[in-house]
Amino acid sequence: MKLFRIALLVCILVAITSCINSKNNAEPANSIITFNEDASKFSASEKQLIQGVILESEREIRTLLPTLPDSINISFEIVDWDLDVVGGVTGRTETNSPPTVFIQISEKYPGGITAAIQKALKHTIFHEFHHLYRGWAIQDNKFEPGIPIAAINEGLAVVFSEEYTSAMEADSPPEDEVAEAWTQELLALPQNADYQTWMFQHPDGRQSIGYRTGNYLVRKAMAESGKNILELSELSPDNIFQLAGY
Ligand SMILES: [Zn+2]
Question: Are residues 39 and 118 in the same domain?
Fold first, then answer.
């Protein structure tokens, strides 16, 4: 009789497990969040806040980008960098396979970690998840090298995040005339032009040329073609340059 009870219990457990598995198979698995606390530790409330923002952002993004990969690894780290111009949060998409994103949050941001999370985490997640959707990753990138390609892929992520979250001053396009001149500069660069110089900090003082020109080009392509950011996100950098009139 005891043996019968155990057998019955096992059957029930198997049924429950298979039910859970089939539910997981039907829906994309959620992100896997880890905290890299080698340098500084997150408080319990900061971790809870991060988990809430990720859950909400991911739910929204998956309705917009249904083919986003499953089970995205997101690693969080506290840094002491000055990230004020981007709301205290930055990130990078490290690999497509496995889908991996690194997020850095600055403890120097006015108001601290919590203020930075509230200001810019959703913005950063929309940006980095758009990269995963396109396959624009540092290690196993699906695109050719070259600053014009980088400008388009970053521009798409910037505009996607601006359309659905908030805009950051650091990525705003310059005036049209300036943006046109910058576009011509980027198009004339050799394929192996220095990434740091053209995407982040030019020795002449200009910052984020690739991001800001990319924002301009993507918005110009949208205006000229009537396509929205989701439609444009399906296209190659060459196609987007064409739609923008180049
Ligand atoms: Zn990016």
Answer: yes
